[in-house]
Amino acid sequence: MRLVTVGVSGSFPGPASPASAYLLQAHDGERDWNVVLDLGNGALGALQRHVDPLDLDAVALSHLHPDHCADLSGLYVYLRYHPERGGTRTGVGRRLPVLGPSTTADRAAAMYGLAAGESMDGEYDVRAWQPGTPVQVGPFELEPFAVYHPVEAYGIRVTGPSSVRPGERVTLVYSGDTDACDGLVEGARGADLFLCEAAFQEGRDDGVERGIHLTGRRAGEAAAAAGVRSLLLTHLPVWNAPDVAIAEALSAYDGPVAVATAGGVHEL
Ligand SMILES: [Zn+2]
Ligand SMILES: [Zn+2]
Q1: Residue 146: which domain range?
Q2: How remote is the CA of residue 50 from the centroid of ligand 1, in Å?
């Protein structure tokens, strides 16, 4: 399984990165499969450096804040109007599976501004997450688990074929946006790679109410409690210093820690 951290900027795009988008790629012996976790503001542009959006097999959304789903609007246009393979020209809708919170279909239509009575059903096959129920996409298994954020929000546990240890399966767990909670630790249990947000900073953000974001330290505590093999911090807003997030995480977790960068490639 290859992870491409297409967009890593926390809460909004920054000068060096789109907002959240993480491309997962794997080969099942017959063909390549492409799943993107979240599609935040600006992500659709950078995503095209790595995959033709027509070749996506699923979009999996952690939650519906714009920095995680805004580019569903652009992707809808791409699938509908592409001059060669768009549904409008071929008469064949792409019906791309979009996995997400219970209100995903309505949100996508409202963001785009569809007229009453119109839908994206020709382009998107929207399916609501059922916590604890895995969804199969080719060689990937995606299992959502509820996390602690002001809106309906999920972490996503992804299992798929290893690209560095042939014949083995590996697990990547994406936190989505969350503060510390038992569900996060359970969801991340034993992950080979824990892709975890660290939007807040110890001290600086202590006055913000709980239930929004992790700090580097709280991400490290979750990583340690879950016994993960490595920790990749992400969703740092532009005003965060990566070295501070890493130092915080290392104060609670003794495995390898790094901060995700736009376009970074990780083979699991
Ligand atoms: Zn966010
Ligand atoms: Zn959020």
Answers
A1: 2-265
A2: 22
